[in-house]
Design a protein that fits this description.
The protein has 411 residues and is an all-alpha fold. It has one domain (16-196, 211-403): MFS general substrate transporter like domains (Growth Hormone, Chain: A, Up-down Bundle), CATH 1.20.1250. Helices cover 83% and strands 0% of the residues. It has 15 helices and no strands. The chain is globular and about 60 Å long. The two termini are 12 Å apart.
């Protein structure tokens, strides 16, 4: 077995049922990510009913991401031990009943608690295990497969908040969340029944379980933390528009529905971005594709607060969505490439956990600096700075890998 781990990879030959896994994981992540993005359309209703500040309300998202970060590590490790199906089933119940539970709350701390559990037990039980499972079903086309699955997240982050906004207009936010939770339960349970691990011969499983080989040919103890550090700053950059774009639109005088449509455009564009960058990663490698996607989102994020034109905001939303979506896809691909097969779940969990920390920080600072200054200029400026730091860290990792190639090729 060589240092690049090709023998280990050959154990997992691609089979047609892998695309069933892709379809199930895509739908599940669409629903999971959709719940995360609902905070964007709950800011105004909570502000109007309870009088809470935007710092307090946007912190709901930060609490959710803390839960997702903590749960992601645990459930990622557990998925390596007991498989993804049982964990995803628990996640479906937690996600649905968590959303229903929010509809009955009247205090900020209970809403925090509910969203923490949604992140820690609901979303994280779907996110890391399903991504790890999908990666195990594919070898040569893992970038495309993971691109499709993560594209589901982009669709969900656009469609679910938009549907919730329409429901809020029709029946109020409490009934809207209740109906949404019931719908989740009906949709998720039949899908999860279809999940199963890829067929692997017993003796091959034993070999893989003892191997540290990976596609990068370098120690995952170095590269995975490096990826995690980059992920923190890339997600600080992306979180600000995801959580505060709708509020920015309403502050500019647009209706709640039009402002929410900006997020919908961003996420629909993100669907294509995840497919594009996933396929690109199969051609040039996950790390180079990640750098390209990071450059795309960073280059436009500050421009959101430099215009009041609805048309230009739609254009910026489309460009940002295309780039930000590719960032998440490629970061997961990098974790898959840099981590041995035996701990795929843990490797993906570590990288995505640090990413969720960045999402929480980004969402919080967006609301905090809005309350401090009365506008979003500093919030989006900080997002741009974080994006530049991410590019610097990623560029350094690229250079480090290049410096190690002569040694790896001669080994």
């Amino acid at each position: 077995m060589n240092q690049l781990g090709t023998s280990s990879e050959d154990f997992f030959e691609e089979q047609p049922y892998g695309w069933v896994i892709v379809a199930v994981a895509t739908t599940c992540l669409a629903l999971g990510f959709g719940i995360n993005a609902t905070v964007a359309v709950l800011i105004k209703p909570f502000e109007q009913e309870f009088g809470w500040s935007r710092t307090d309300i946007s912190s709901v998202y930060s609490v959710l991401t803390i839960g997702a970060a903590i749960g992601g590590i645990f459930w990622g490790i557990m998925s390596d031990k007991i498989g993804s199906k049982k964990i995803a089933l628990l996640g479906a119940f937690a996600l649905a009943f968590g959303v229903i539970g929010v509809s009955f709350q009247n205090t900020l701390w209970t809403i925090y608690a509910a969203f923490f559990l949604i992140g820690a037990i609901g979303f994280s039980c779907l996110f890391t295990p399903l991504l790890a499972l999908t990666g195990l079903w594919f070898n040569k086309r893992k970038g495309l497969a993971l691109g499709i699955v993560t594209a589901g997240g982009a669709i969900g982050q656009g469609v679910v908040p938009f549907v919730l906004r329409l429901l809020i207009t029709a029946v109020g936010w409490r009934d809207a969340l209740f109906y949404l939770g019931v719908g989740y339960l009906i949709l998720l349970l039949p899908l999860i029944v279809l999940l199963k691990p890829p067929p692997v011969l017993t003796e091959m499983t034993t070999t893989v379980s003892k191997s540290d080989d990976n596609l990068w040919g370098m120690s995952h103890k170095i590269t995975v933390p490096w990826l995690g550090l980059a992920g923190i700053f890339c997600c600080i950059c992306m979180a600000v528009p995801l959580i505060h774009l709708v509020s920015l639109g309403t502050d500019l005088g647009f209706s709640a529905e039009i402002a929410t449509s900006l997020l919908l455009v961003l996420m629909v564009s993100g669907m294509f971005g995840r497919l594009f960058f996933g396929a690109l990663a199969d051609r040039i490698g996950g790390l180079y594709a990640y750098f390209a996607a990071s450059l795309s989102q960073t280059s436009v994020v500050f421009l959101f607060v430099q215009t009041e034109s609805l048309g230009l905001l739609y254009v910026l939303s489309a460009i940002f969505g295309f780039g930000f979506a590719g960032v998440m896809t490629c970061l997961i691909i990098c974790a898959r490439e840099a981590t041995p097969l035996r701990i795929t779940g843990m490797g993906v969990a570590i990288v995505t956990t640090t990413a969720w920390i960045g999402m929480g920080v980004g969402g919080f600072q967006g609301g905090y600096f809005y309350d401090l200054t009365g506008n979003y200029t500093l919030s989006y400026g900080n997002a741009a700075i974080a994006g530049l730091i991410n590019l610097t860290i990623t560029g350094a990792l690229i250079l480090y890998r290049r410096s190690q190639m002569p040694r790896l090729q001669s080994a």
